[in-house]
Amino acid sequence: MNRAALADFLRRRREALRPSDVGLVSGPRRRTPGLRREEVAALTGMSADYYVRIEQQRGPQPSTQMLAALARTLRLTTDERDHLFRLAGHNVPRRTPEDTHVAPALLRVLDRMADTPALILSSLGEVLVANRLAVSLFGDPAARTGLARCDVYRWFTDPASRAVYPPEYHDRHGRGLVASLRVAHGAAGPRSRAGELVRALLAESPEFHGLWERHEVARRFEDHKIVVHPEVGGIEVDCQALFTEDQSQALLVLTPRPGSEAEDKIRLLAVLGHQNFAAADR
Fold first, then answer.
1. Domains of the chain, with CATH numbers?
2. Phi, psi of 120 (to 5 degrees)
3. For residue range 132-187, what is the model confidence (pLDDT) as tens digits?
4. Rounded to 5 degrees, what are φ and ψ at 150?
5. Of 93, 131, 166, 191, which is the most buried if we count CB atoms within 10 A?
6. 39 within 8 A of 10, measured Cβ to Cβ
7. Distance linking the first and last C-alpha atoms of the chain
8. Which residues, in sequence order, are bridge partners of residue 253?
């Protein structure tokens, strides 16, 4: 672990970012360039004291999970993320089609979307980042671990996960999830996380087994769907997906039609979401 170089790298990357780059309001009293240390800590999910000690070259060695979160907060490229891991004395994450380091370009777009649900997905359907409206609609991805991070796994193993869509949409959605997993499995191979996911689902879900045998292959998102929220009911949205160049990640944006009842429900969801977040903070 190169404490001096690690501290210098983090400080320079922090000072190179503007608050607007990470979805924050700068405010009139900001005197220092870039982000404040406490802002980086809050966005990363660590204590401010922990982060300060790292920049002061006196903190413990950060874990790989903490480094991955820091890389996301500081909007590091993949090369910069690898450099961060080396400075901290860890092996560099292996680059695969299933890499979960979020593309900075997608994050910059997501940071500017506060009035509509938006989330970034991996090739396996893991929610890597979600804005507040998406969390209000689909739940907090940080609460999920292991294979349950993948939408397709929850869909076929947890009946409660299907409540987010109307029953008449279930068959089509399930087929789409399996067809998308076929794409990821073909790209990464049977010894990958996609392979692990397929083996687990074949063992646990007869429904998945039947759909997997159909050998349907497609990477797509439905352009129109109804999402069901327990408090505001069904919300009709149009879906747009922006993919990275290597097709490994996608920014999914859900937008209601202007002037529609769904638009009013999204506004209500924003209010409910802020109330829930405030209650959680208290």
1. 3-87 (1.10.260.40), 104-281 (3.30.450.180)
2. -110, 130
3. 899 988 888 878 888 999 999 999 999 999 999 999 999 999 999 999 999 888 88
4. -90, 130
5. 131
6. no
7. 37
8. 118, 240
Question: Any residues with CB less than 8 A from the CB of 128 and at least 6 apart, and which?
Answer: 100, 102, 119, 120, 121, 122, 141, 249
- Segments of the chain with pLDDT less than 70: 27-28, 30, 96-99, 221-222, 273-282
3-state secondary structure (DSSP) of residue 3: helix
Q: What is d(CA 180, CA 167) in angstroms, rounded to the nearest whole number?
A: 21
User: 60: how many CB neighbours lie within 10 A of its CB?
Assistant: 9
Helix (H) / strand (E) containing 5? helix 3-16
- Identify residue 1 by its one-letter amino acid code: M
Beta bridge partners of 240: 253
Task: Yes or no: say if 38 and 48 are a contact pair by the CB < 8 Å rule.
Answer: yes
Helix, strand, coil percent values for the chain (each to nearest 5): 55, 10, 35
Whether the CB-CB separation of 36 and 27 falls below 8 Å is answered with: no
Contact 171, 204 (CB under 8 A): no
52 contact partners, CB below 8 Å, separation of at least 6: 37, 41
At 140, list the tokens. 């907090």
Residue 26 contacts residue 45 (beta carbons within 8 Å): no
Tell me the whole-structure pTM to 2 decimals.
0.69
Q: Which residues of 227-246 are buried (b: 16+ CB within 10 A; e: fewer)?
A: bbbeebeebbbebeeeeeee
Write out the DSSP string of 49-112.
HHHHHHHTT-SPPPPHHHHHHHHHHTT--HHHHHHHHHHTT-PPPPP-TT--PPPHHHHHHHHT
Query: What distance in Å separates the CA atoms of residue 63 and residue 89, rounded to the nearest whole number?
Result: 10
